[in-house]
Every structure is written in C-alpha cells, then in structure tokens.
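User: Can you recover a sequence for this backbone? Please restate the input before giving your answer.

Assistant: Of course. Working from this structure:
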C-alpha cells in the first residue's frame, strides 16, 4: 500500500486553516471536481449546544462550505443521521449546524433517517454480522463525500473521529444491528461499501472527558485533513498522546485495506506532530472495566446508552454513592431474555426502552431511547422507575450538578498535575 498523506494546519481562522490543509493535499480544485455533487457529513449526532464540542462546530461547517465552493461544484448537500433516539433536524437546529449551513449557501439539507429511496448494498466478505446495508440513493450517486468529524472522547470506542463518523450514514435499524455485533468490524464493513473521498477534521476545539455527552472542550487550534481516514485518525492519536494499540478499530480497518496507521506509512505535511502536540484526557481507555464492583451487560446496546451509562457511573462517584451500590447488575440493550445467572429484582437495573418488556416485574426501570440523562442515576439511587419528567426534575438535576461540577474540578487538577512535565 502506498504512503498516505495527512495535512495539519494551525491557526485561529477556520476558513484559512481549512484552505491551507487542503492546499497541502494539492488544493481543493484537485480534490473536488467542477460541476460535481458533494455531500458533506459532519458530526451532528446529538442535540447539544455548540459550545460543548459534542458536535462539529457551526463555524467549521460554514468554513468548509466556503472552501468547497472554490472548486465550483454543482451542488453541496448537508446530510446526517443522528444518534439512535435523537432527531436529526433537531440536532441540526440545537447545534447551530443547520443555520450555519444555510447562511453559507448550502443547496440541500437531508435527514438520512427519513430517506425512503434506499439501495441495498451487499457487503462482500463481511467481518461482522452485517452482510448488507441499505443506503440512500443520493449518497451512493454523489460524486464526492466529505467527512467532517470533530474529535471527541467516546464511551464505547475510546474516541470518535473520521472512521466512526461514517456510521452516521445509516438509519436506526442498521445502527442497532451494528451494536449487536462487533462494532469495530461493523464500522469497517460499512466503510467497505461507502467511502468518504476526503476527511477534514475539526481539531480547533476538540473534546476530552466524558464524551459523547458530557464533553470538556480543549483549545487545540488545528485542522487535520487527508483522503485516508485510518491515517487521519492515527495521526490525531499521535497529536494527543493516545497509543493506537489501545483503540479497537485500527486493526480491523487495516485488515479491510482502508488505509495506513503506521508512522512510516504516513507523510505529514504542514505542521508536524511535535509542533502541535497536546495531551488530551480520555477516561475510557479501560472501557467498562473502569467501574469494578458493578456487573454491566452491554450486549446489543447503542453508543448513546453506553455513553449515558459511563457518565452515570462517574456521577455515582461524584456524589459519594459508588461504593454503596456495588454488587448491583445493570442491563443495557436489547435482550431476548434475562441473561443467565441474573434475576429480576431491586438489584437488577434495567436501562432504556429496549428492556421495556421487563418493566413492572420487580426491577427498577429507566425509560427512554435513550433515557433522559439523570434517569439511570436516579433509578440506581432510588431503586424505583424513572420514566417521566416530573415537577422535581430541574431542582434535583441542579443539586446533582453541584456534585458533578466539583468532581470535574478535582479531576481537572489531577489531570493538570499528571500532564505537567
């Protein structure tokens, strides 16, 4: 396999940085054909405000559209399928991405979840249980797909960036299927049939901490770009001090022939890694083994619920409740039956509507798809169902938040001390 080229630009103006990053790859005019149809795919998975860095920033979306226009495409389409349980158009609104795209002159905005004109694509030599996938016709017929993720920490996969962002081209049914098999291999199976032509990563204010929901933005000031998503993600890992051997999807990506992750097989143009290096805090390197004393069954669960559960476990620590509840079991995701060795009862927590059929049989239930953020926490604390937003919701959330903010401040001190050298 030939060397992959990755460009790194640093600055303060998103449009200038993106223009520079693409110039280092040969220029936008060589990357995007004139009179072509271009689909841009940001990360707009959750309806969370832009200041959180939980999604690609609106300013970044505006800048990409302006730079792509220099290649004179016929049409630029903004497309996304938000996370399971989330509404894509609401996500576009709350994140500011929809408005930013309109102001930048986007031609169309498409919610992939609502598309009905789908093409069934077989996955040859599938490595996961996903042997075919139904993808929107407009996406398959586009001349170019531009992948525009933001880097952020992620409970189920350590981090999300170029490789994971393409998961947002499938509808909820396939999302569910991907989480019921080997997710890393399922992601690469999807990549094998729908590849982005170009990856432009928002590393201006990436997010560390308890992503994908409770993120901590970091001023990094970079844009990273390349045709090879594996090389792009591997380069960013080196920029932030993350050992790629601890990331589950580089090996299946390489086995699928999707790109390079070895340093000797990647040519860095522009700023070098040593010029921009900044260690980021990624607390999910241990996965769910990070919370011993709790029996957690995640089989068949989606990343929305996994991220929420990880946040719940840390909030138990923040409130001084973690030790008190050791010994309980937590079920997340679709289950045909209660796993062997477990019994319905007060110490078996049910999380999410996937387990709704077991409600009322003795186990506390947290309702929703995904549940509202405090519900899993309150179910563990109260050992009773939480499914509706009642009059005490805001007040109780406010009390919880005081513990959480203090906890994060303490973790920030420890992190700063650890990374000082």
């Amino acid at each position: 396999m030939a060397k992959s080229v990755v460009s790194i630009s640093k600055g303060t103006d998103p449009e200038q940085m993106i223009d520079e990053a693409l110039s280092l790859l040969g220029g936008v005019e060589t990357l995007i054909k004139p009179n072509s149809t271009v689909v841009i795919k940001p990360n707009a998975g959750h309806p969370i405000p832009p200041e959180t860095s939980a999604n690609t920033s609106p300013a970044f979306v505006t800048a990409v559209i302006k730079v792509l226009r220099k290649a004179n495409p016929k049409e630029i389409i903004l497309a996304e399928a938000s996370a399971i349980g989330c509404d894509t158009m609401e996500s576009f609104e709350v994140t500011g991405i929809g408005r930013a795209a309109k102001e930048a002159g986007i031609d169309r905005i498409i919610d992939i979840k609502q598309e009905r004109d789908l093409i069934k694509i077989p996955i040859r030599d599938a490595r996961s249980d996903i042997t075919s996938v139904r993808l929107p016709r407009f996406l398959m017929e586009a001349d170019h797909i531009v992948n525009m993720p933001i880097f952020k920490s992620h409970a189920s996969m350590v981090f999300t960036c170029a490789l994971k962002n393409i998961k947002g081209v499938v509808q909820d049914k396939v999302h569910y299927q991907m989480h019921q098999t080997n997710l890393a291999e399922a992601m690469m199976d999807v990549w094998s049939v729908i590849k982005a032509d170009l990856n432009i990563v928002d590393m201006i204010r990436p997010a560390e901490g308890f992503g994908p929901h409770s993120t901590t933005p970091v001023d990094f000031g970079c844009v990273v770009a390349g045709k090879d998503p594996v090389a792009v993600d591997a380069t960013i890992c080196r920029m932030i001090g993350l050992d790629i051997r601890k990331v589950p999807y580089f090996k299946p990506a390489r086995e699928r022939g999707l790109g390079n992750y070895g340093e000797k097989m990647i040519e860095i143009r522009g700023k070098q890694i040593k010029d921009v290096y900044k260690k980021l805090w990624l607390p999910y390197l241990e996965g769910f083994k990070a919370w011993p004393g709790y029996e957690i069954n995640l089989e068949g669960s989606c990343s929305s619920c996994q991220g929420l559960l990880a946040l719940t476990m840390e909030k138990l620590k923040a409130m001084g409740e973690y030790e008190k509840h050791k010994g309980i079991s937590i079920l997340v995701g679709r289950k045909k039956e209660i796993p062997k060795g477990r019994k319905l009862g007060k110490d078996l927590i049910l999380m999410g509507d996937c387990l709704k059929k077991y409600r009322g049989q003795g186990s506390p239930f947290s309702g929703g798809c995904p549940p509202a953020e405090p519900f899993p926490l309150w179910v563990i604390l109260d050992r009773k169902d939480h499914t509706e937003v009642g009059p005490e919701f805001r007040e109780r959330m406010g009390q919880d938040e005081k513990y959480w903010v203090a906890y994060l401040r303490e973790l920030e001190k420890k992190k700063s001390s650890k990374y000082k050298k």
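That completes the design. The chain has a mean pLDDT of 93.
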